[in-house]
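chain below, 720 aa
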Amino acid sequence: MFRHALRSLLALLALGALYPSLLPVAFAEPSLDAGHAGLTEPTALGARPSNASASPEKNGNGPGRTHLQIREFKVNDGLPPPAEALDLASPLRAWNALLGACKNEKYELGMHVLTHNDVAMSEQARMAPGLTRQLCEVIRVLPMTAFHPQVDDYEGPFLDGRVTNRSTAITVIMPDGDTEELFLSRVQDTGTGKFVWMVNRRCVAQIPVWYQVFVRGEAVAVRPDADRLNAAGPIPADWKIQAPRRAVLQFMALAKQDRYDEAARLLDLTAIPVDQQPVEGPRLARRLARLLPVLRQQPLEVLSNSPRGAPEVDLNNDEELVASASESAEGQLLLRRYPRAAGKAVWLFSFESVGRIDSLYAQYGQGWFGDNLSHGYFAYNVLWLQPWQWLVLLGSFLIAGLGGFILAWLLQRICLLIAGLTQWRWDEELAAVMRGPLGLLITAFILRWLTFKNMALTGSSSTVIANLCMLTSVLALGWLAIRLVDVASSAMTRSFLGRNDHLATAMVPVVRRVLKPILFVLVVVISLQNMGVNVGGLLAGLGIGGIAVALAGKTSLENLIGSIAIAFDRPFRIGDLVKVGEVVGYVEELGLRSTRVRTYDRTIVTIPNGELAMSRVENYGVRDTTRHTASLEVHKETTGEQLRGAIESIRASLAANPNVWQESFMVNYSGPCNAGFQPALRIEMVLWLMTTDLARFAEQREEVMLRVAEILREQGIRLA
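prediction:
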């Protein structure tokens, strides 16, 4: 015991070296209120009971004494890590670290002695140095009697053999007569795993008020008595609303039971006439209960549980921000600390916040449903939506579906009437197929309007409903585009048939079959993009996959490209007589993969379009005449006079024949030849008949050759 007392004495001398004004305090006998866990005997200045454990890792019950539970949380997670030299292992070392930082004005170091967890994490780095500076200023002006000595023991002071994990550093009397303390608590920092002593978070909340009173000499704002703010009467004594968190939890507990007349007592209704408060109070309390879950982004348990609240930027010391729709004051819902003559000060919703409830509810509330349905419809979520929202969504689906069907039917009737006044057919066909896609599109727009107007959608639910409506709209537009392709195909087919363009007519189904998959893929990509899928990565993957598919389906791709090349080059038409390699026949069908040709033997030859595009195609169908050649082999005894007479007669016959192209035909003697094994003389004929039809060609050829036979007989010429 003597060793511990000597260690405490040396530590207090060091404390006096840092802050000489505090040296007498180190030897003053401490005196704490009975309700505080502090020092009651001078021997408690570091002396531990003889049966106390010396191991800092132990945190359980030892023989003859008990520990209070040490709080565990991540300390000051919004601040940068403290310096490694910062020693917070005991109350005295933590207090000395704070005093040293104050003396050297190193507030960025001293802020790590304070627990700032009641301050919003995003604001800790901004506010912590200022709060530390204010505390240092308070320490400088407080009288010596306000300070209590600290012990250099990792477990802190003992009270009746009991470890309290708390050490009071300052006790002051406020102008209203209330006694307040600044104390250090032992906590376990879950971020580092260390046990440290730090200024308690509830005490940090008192710093701005102390600074205002003791440093700046300003009076604390005088608020009206909390029991006189509401016509319903005094606040019940059993309501534990001395801290912001408790006040809001009390309000929400009453709201869950639909006891809004009682919940209205937590509202400052002084701005509302007294005779209207019994009606307006419950109505505003109901709307406030609906707004808080919508506007507050963090759980209510994050609110400060300190009677003084938590320091916040741009707010008075006795105000606490509960929820906010915007950064401006007009969008904030605040709690304010009100005194009570009958007890401790309590936290209530300020009259400014009460005045904003209606305007905020009009923008973010649930409309008629929030004003009339019980709290159970708003108490929980099922797949991002509350029960009342599911009811509204179901009703919206029914109304939107019925409205879409009726409006689409009316628009279709109007379009059909207009189309009946024109000479075209495509507009009637379009009007006939537009009702389905148009109805779905109108349904999506009505659904989006109804849900966003009546469901108070926020966060994930808003995103899901918006994506659903957008997806429906995209599908409807895609459906309509596919219907347009069918209508356009039908109109183009009629147009090409009217011009007797059979190849273009045959290509219409090809183009339709290509466009529809493209439209389908486009609809899928747009839908995925609106659902939040990374379309860029998907398209890159499809590109790589497309290369693999192209390599695997090289032949199919060649045939597809070949069909497109044939469509643009137009080397033949449907029905043309063509020769491709050794195949001669009529073109019957042009498809995506192949072209079908019917031969003279009435068989079908299928030629791949890729091969056809690369082949030499001879088109007999585009000729204007049909060539005919004949070789007449006459007997070798035929005289020259007979030959000349026959040739002249044949020429005259051809010149007189209207079926023979007169611009060019030839009949000539080509000389001796062998007719089998017999020598003969040859007359050759080359002429063009004025037809491209094979049957007609055969008739005209027959007519020409019969006349040639008659001429030979007339000339007395015999065939060899």
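Residues 1-67 have pLDDT under 50 and may be disordered. The chain has 21 helices and 18 strands.
thats it, cya
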